[in-house]
Amino acid sequence: MTPFLPTLSDLCSRLAGVEALVLVDSAVRNRLIDRDSLTRSDSVVLRSLGPLAEPAESPMETRLRWLLLKAGLPRPEVQTKLLDSRGRFVGRADLYYPDSRLVIEFDGANHRDRLVEDNRRQNLLMNAGYSVLRFTASDYYNRPDRIVAQVSAAAAVSARRPAAAPR
């Protein structure tokens, strides 16, 4: 059996940066490797991706995060648990900017099957004082500049808005 780290290094060296990060994020999420091992690796590629590695739940979440980082936006948190003013769990964000309370969601093909549940969750998030932006694969592949512009604008507006008042 081939050791995992050399195999990961070999695969990542053959992929474009974003696709290598997709692979690394998947390995971190599945606990096949941790960030410390990546940053200590002999592989230049793995060392460069180590600080960016996160336990993203889907390749498109990683791609969306990569797009925002490459555009010069701050690094968003990944899979963050969100609470209301009473400390109750209201949802988990794919990507999250805590300073502006901005939630960014990637809606994959299964979103249609979960639409009612996702809409209820979005209402809870918005009532708790979070802003929510949702994007799809079509947005990523056909309008990446609009994603960056919308996230930039929403983060700037959200940063000026006060947090939800305690109840």
Please give a quick description of this structure.
The chain contains eight helices and four strands.
Plain-language structure description:
The protein is an alpha+beta fold and 167 residues long. It has 2 domains: 4-52, no CATH class; 59-160, VSR Endonuclease (Endonuclease, Chain A). 49% of the residues lie in helices and 16% in strands. It is built from 8 helices and 4 strands; from the N terminus they run αααααβββαβαα. The protein has helices spanning 4-13, 17-29, 35-39, 44-49, 59-70, 115-127, 137-142, 144-160; strands at 77-83, 89-97, 102-106, 131-135. Strands 1-2-3-4 form a 4-stranded mixed sheet. A hairpin with a 4-residue loop joins strand 2 and strand 3. Helix 1 (4-13) packs antiparallel against helix 2. The longest helix is centred in the C-terminal third of the chain and has 17 residues, at 144-160. The protein is globular. It starts with a helix and ends in a 7-residue tail after the last helix.
